[in-house]
Amino acid sequence: MRANIYHLKTERVAGVMMMAVLKQELDSKRSMELLHQIFGHMSMNTIQNLANKLDVGVKVKERGLAPCKCVACAASKAKRMTFARVPVRKSLPLEKLMVDVCSVSEPTVDGATLFLLVLDEATRFKWVYLMKAKWEATWHIKVLANLLCVRFPGQPCAACIPTKVEFIGGELTEFCGEHGIELTTTNSYSPQENGIMERANGIVLPRIRAMLTTTRLSNFLWGEALLHVVTTLNHLPT
After folding, report:
1. How far is residue 187's CA from residue 162's CA, in Å, rounded to a whole number?
2. CA 156 to CA 145: how far, in whole Å?
3. 92 alpha-carbon distance from chain centroid
């Protein structure tokens, strides 16, 4: 390397184009870093194999290469962090309810292909409702809200609902305003904001598949399996 520019020298040996890297008094880590950048950030294990084998068409004149840390590779492979690194869990029951709708390709005996899952953030208690259409979600939420207000009067209540067509209707907004329920929605294409429900779905759905596989029951019985799974989870410690 001269003037911060890498120089490659090629020479023809026995009809095969061989390539060598020009270095001047570089240590093993610096040599690995140089080769790693020249070969387009190739794996360092592959570079070591190239340095030890001569039958691959490329000859690297270097021995004893030591691995090094490439900051550019680490930065380019980094993934986006979750929305809340340390989320604050609500402490009061019914202080915040999380809502989500999932679809299943196989219809149940009654023809349901959707289910509404409601989760209490503080206690992790769950309610589930089978649905045939998305518009039924608003009706189930209203029924559940009335039930909770009658059974637990005076409890604060807020609902976090994903931004979907079946939830944005003015009927639900008007209902929440009349009953003093704070209604919040998540942003579109941001499942990390509703991560609690995403993890809940990741627990419920695999258990449904496992139950149907173990019992060798038909897939159209997933609704009954769902009700059993949610009831069992509500009686187990979180």
Report:
1. 7
2. 11
3. 27
Residue 10 DSSP class: E
| Confidence at residue 39, expressed as pLDDT on a 0 to 100 scale | 73
| 116-139 pLDDT tens trace | 999 998 888 999 999 999 888 889
Tell which residue, 78, 77, 1, has the closest CA to residue 38: 1
Q: Is the dihedral of CA 153, 155, 156, 158 positive or negative?
A: negative
List, in order, residues 6 or more apart from 113 with CB less than 8 Å away: 103, 104, 105, 106, 107, 131, 132
What's the token pair of residue 207?
């258990």
Fold of 97-205: Nucleotidyltransferase; domain 5 (3.30.420)
Say if CB 132 and CB 113 are below 8 A apart.
yes
Q: Where are the domains of the chain?
A: 97-205
Q: How many residues does the chain have?
A: 238
